[in-house]
Design brief:
The chain is an all-alpha fold. The protein has one domain: Four Helix Bundle (Hemerythrin (Met), subunit A) (Up-down Bundle). A two-stranded antiparallel sheet has the order 1-2. A hairpin with a 2-residue loop joins strand 1 and strand 2. The longest helix has about 35 residues. The relative contact order is 0.17.
Length: about 160
């Protein structure tokens, strides 16, 4: 995988981690809001785009974190964060894929081409929406856990006082 270690001389990992930390939970919230039929299509499209970018962000964060890991002191907190960061990749990518499939199904079913594609069972949109919400909740939990352990690894021992 392509590793981006620095952006304009700054370690890339602290920048990339904010992509999934913000976008994965936001996409999960959008998926939950898509339960309301009136707003389902635009919210599912927004959730799909947000989840897909969040999934890519998790991969970028993990890749840049591996490079950064070699240049920091190996502590138990760093190892824990690295393991949880690795574990967050699969749920976040699965969430992105499911959200894109759910949005595509919703758009195609309502499009002028709906008669030309095979008809899915009536329950399929509800199952896809439920899978999107469920996978979003799981991905959010994994991303939160990875982010929390990363914050602990960075901030443990820092008391906030400025010393001269």
């Amino acid at each position: 995988m392509l590793a981006i270690d620095r952006i304009f001389g700054v370690p890339a990992h602290p920048l990339f981690v904010h992509i999934p930390v913000v976008l994965v939970p936001l996409a999960a919230i959008l998926a939950v809001a898509a339960i309301f039929k009136k707003f389902r299509q635009p919210l599912l499209i927004a959730a799909a785009i947000t989840a897909a970018v969040g999934g890519i962000g998790v991969l970028l964060a993990a890749s840049s974190g591996e490079g950064l890991q070699d240049s920091v002191k190996h502590t138990a907190l760093i190892r824990d964060h690295a393991e949880k960061g690795d574990a967050a990749q699969t749920p976040a990518v699965i969430f992105g894929v499911i959200a894109v499939v759910a949005a595509a199904e919703e758009v195609l079913r309502r499009s002028k081409y709906a008669k030309k594609i095979p008809k899915l069972p009536k329950w399929a949109p509800a199952v896809l929406l439920a899978a999107t919400v469920a996978s979003g909740a799981v991905a959010t939990a994994f991303v939160y856990d990875a982010g929390h352990t990363g914050a602990k690894a960075v901030w443990t021992g820092v008391d906030g006082r400025v010393t001269k």
